[in-house]
Amino acid sequence: MAANEKETGIRASVELLTVYEISKILSSSLDVVKTLREALNVLSHQLTYRRAMIALADDDGESLSLAAAVGLSAKEWASGRYRPGEGILGRVYTSGSPMVVPDISVEPLFLNRTGALDEAGGNTISFICVPIRGGTEILGVLCVDRVMTLRGGFGSDVRVLSMVANLVGQSVALRRVVNDEHVRLIHQAKQARRAPRGRFKLDNVVGASARMQEVFAEAHQVAPSRATVLLRGESGTGKEVIARAIHELSQRKTGPFVKLNCAALSESLLESEMFGHEKGSFTGATGERKGRFELADGGTLFLDEIGDISPSFQTKLLRVLQEREFERVGGSRAIKVDVRLVCATNRNLEKMVAAGTFRADLYFRINVVSIFLPALRERREDIPALTRHFLERFNRENDRSMTISPSGEAVMMHCYWPGNVRELENCLERTATMAHHDAIDAQDFPCSVNRCLTQVLHFVKKDDAVSPVVLTRVDEEHAFAPEDEAESGATSDFPSGRRGDDDKPRGERDRLVWAMEQCGWVQAKAARLLNITPRQMGYALKKHDIEVRRF
Question: How does residue 395 score in pLDDT terms, banded at 50, 70 and 90?
């Protein structure tokens, strides 16, 4: 009896460890194919199952097909399709109840479709199958087979497989939600390309194009509600002004509009800025200070660059959003607030969730309503109006009477504007300030004499002519929409402009060395400076045989 109890205890410990290891695997990534296969490997190895497989229902629910398996050949895998109610797998999927077959050789319902009986080798093979649930929905089945032994019944097998199946169900359900959201975002991005009905206007926001009219319509639609809004778009597209416009159109317009750039502060300072601190809570805390959440009570809190907060701070922010209360740093008193949250990011949060760098539960909390802001190059018809708007403001603030000539307007219309509206505003202000006459011409712009920072980063000087660079890729973490036109037609790993017969365009090597020197020979920083990925940077350095200096 003592020996049996010891064996049972050892088995229970192994089962607990197995479930723990599988939970870590399934939560490490949203790549279902990868995580399910790894989970089955751990399950089979730890609990000595002969073969294991997971079959998931197709989208229409009319059939089950294998999503992962251990111990099956390619031919056996191809045979692993079942209809609801067909065989043991189909019955478990239909009924939602586990089934145990002590000896598959005498069970008429066992179809032997994947050849489990053929490889029995004279042993008695047992088969256990449990349903995989995602909430109230049955998503598929988890099945294993093992050599029949004298160690008791199958209760422990059913128990541990049911726990693993629940973990698998949560992982599969989450992945499907993310996929559905991705499809919705793609559809929303396509819809944004169509002209909206009617005309909309937002104060201090210029945009008569179809794309911006769609943004205005969505802002008018969401503003009166309490829904959290997530503004998506490249840097400089005007996310802050849209956030302020939503606040002004809401019932909270008499309340405060408080903003915070999450990327500008370290984690400790961000916590203090967002939640406030008590006197003496840390060195330099000479008095009590309210945080941005507290200051925004009754109004709107705008969190810019939300995709840049650390995983540990994501947990703290999620708790506040769930409970609508927080404690100041160094305090113990819960403070309740009534705040409408508007967030903004230029990162691809869906890929960050899949990579495990952004919490899925926080993603769903902030992504209630998404509004995509188009890049300036996607709404060029707004450039003349934007030019007039910023020029009029410059004249008011500087007591000038500047205008812009047709040649100057042509320069504005043909620029790529990688920095979007913010870059256009800065370029126009710089040019108007340095112009020696009242009409801005093409030759007044810095790009006409190769002194434009954007030109240094994105243009190539070739035979004393400036040719625009074709940007081939966008860093995945900073892609702002599911469909990024910069991805299409990519033919080079490095922005290099128009090419002749020479594989190495003139100026590319010099641009690489310049960027590395500017960034202290840190490749990741230099890649960001050139608007390429670290992988592209490494390839380009290797291609040009540039030795990276070590300090």
Answer: very high
Same-domain status, 510 and 530: yes
352, two tokens: 């960050």
CATH number for the domain that contains residue 438: 1.10.8.60
pTM: 0.52
| Domain extent for 541 | 462-551
pLDDT digits (tens, 9 = 90+) for 262-320: 888 888 788 888 888 787 666 666 677 888 988 999 999 999 999 999 998 999 899 88
Instruction: Indicate which CATH number applies to the domain containing 229.
Output: 3.40.50.300
The Cα 322–Cα 201 span in angstroms is 34
Q: How many structural domains comprise the chain?
A: 4
DSSP H/E element including 183: helix 155-191
Q: What are phi and psi of 404, to 5 degrees?
A: -130, 135
What is the rounded distance in angstroms from the CA atom of residue 384 to the CA atom of residue 407? Answer: 12
One domain, residues 159 and 284: no
Beta-bridge mates of residue 20: none
Q: Do the Cβ atoms of 89 and 129 come closer than 8 Å? A: yes
CB pairs under 8 A, 24+ apart, for 274-279? 274/317, 275/316, 275/320, 275/326, 275/327, 275/328, 275/329, 276/328, 276/329, 277/328, 277/329, 277/330, 277/331, 278/328, 278/329, 278/330, 278/331
Contact 37, 28 (CB under 8 A): no
Phi then psi for residue 229, to 5 deg, are: -115, 135
Buried b (16+ CB within 10 A) or exposed e, 279-300: eebeeebeeebebbbbbbbebb
Q: What is the DSSP-derived secondary structure letter of residue 155?
A: H
Comparing C-alpha atoms, which of 184, 211, 207, 179 is closest to residue 196?
A: 211
- Residues forming a β-bridge with 369: 229
CA 251 to chain centre: 31
Residue 528 is predicted with a pLDDT of 82
**For 440-486, how does the pLDDT look when each residue is reduced to its tens digit (9 = 90+)?**
998 888 877 766 766 555 544 333 333 333 333 333 334 333 333 33
Which residue matches tokens 């503003």? 223
Dist CA 145 CA 100 (whole Å): 10
For residue 236, pLDDT beyond 80:
yes
- Residue pair 442/449 in contact (Cβ under 8 Å)? The answer is no
Same domain for 481 and 438: no
On whether the CB atoms of residues 424 and 417 are closer than 8 A, the answer is yes
- CATH number of the structural domain spanning residue 22: 3.30.450.40
* 239 and 200 both lie in a single domain: yes
Helix, strand, coil distribution of the chain in percent, nearest 5:
45, 15, 35
Confidence label for 358 from pLDDT (cuts 50, 70 and 90) = very high
Q: Which H or E run includes 314?
A: helix 311-323
Alpha-carbon Rg for the chain in angstroms: 30
